[in-house]
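Observation: inputs received (chain + uridine-5'-diphosphate).
Thought: call the complex predictor directly.
Action: predict_structure
Action Input:
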Amino acid sequence: MKITYSIIAPIYNEFDNLPELYRRVKEVMDSSGEPWELILVDDGSTDGSTDGIRELARQDKTVRPVIFARNFGHQVAITAGWDYARGDAVVIIDADLQDPPEVILELANKWKEGYEVVYAVRGEREGESWFKLWTASLFYRIIYRITDVKIPVDTGDFRLMDRKVVDVLKQMKERHRFPRGMSAWVGFRQIGVTYKRAARVAGVTKYPFKKMLRLAINAITGFSYFPLQVATYFGFISAGVAIFAIPVVAALRLAGSHFFEGQTTTLISVLFLGGVQLISLGILGEYIGRLYDEAKGRPLYIVREAPED
Ligand code: UDP
Ligand code: MG
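Observation:
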């Protein structure tokens, strides 16, 4: 049977959210009157979600389980969803119901108008700490400024994409992934739909600060050379300062001034430049590490159980 909508939900320890996720997606998608499938990607859950997914798939053939051999991360789980999706339109949704399934119909309406990427913009957000809101907002704005692709602000992975777009994304095999950047990069006709992001139904966030930071670094390194250029800017600035400062200091000394005498000035400049150099080296390391990962060419994810059909 030809499938119109593929809904992809990455699952990492979301056992308590599974029944509600399934119920609401089913209700909404059945009301669309078109054939759909729900791809549940189990990203190495340890709380029984895996069995929960198997059970749903046993009861209802519209649920297709993809079960990873271990935790590969949210972005990779989304990628696996793209690989298994068969629909003409592919929707990515969070399993914790922060992205209300009802919004899918609004996204679908825009798709029917001819848009190929319909991304959901977070207008309001409920039930999240000020720290999360503030860091998220800062993150979107920094990414917008320094990356070469214009990635829409306040937009997560919740979006609908046409089959054409997904087929292009499937060819992008980069390891350190930032799906919302990738889907902005491909072009096509894109539009945003504003929605109210709900609070989590059950459980806690699977994005501790460390993972958020990783995602931010992946986003920046994946779509911009800016951090590498910072070293060049610093180099020009300190070289510029040196060109002016050296004659001034030399002249002062020749004139008998003792203003720049002693270890303090030396220490300050050595420590400062040492710091700048080490940070630049670290940034270089981030890019080289990524190159190395790409060169190894390992599979992006390992599937323990794939859908039967
Ligand atoms: N997730 C995942 N693998 C991970 C972390 C998260 O598949 O390593 C899933 C998680 O189950 C959820 C979605 O990614 O469906 C978003 O995660 P979460 O709600 O914890 O992020 P937040 O909304 O707090 O940013
Ligand atoms: Mg969430």
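Thought: report the result.
Final Answer: The chain has a mean pLDDT of 90. The CA atoms of residues 116 and 164 lie 8 Å apart.
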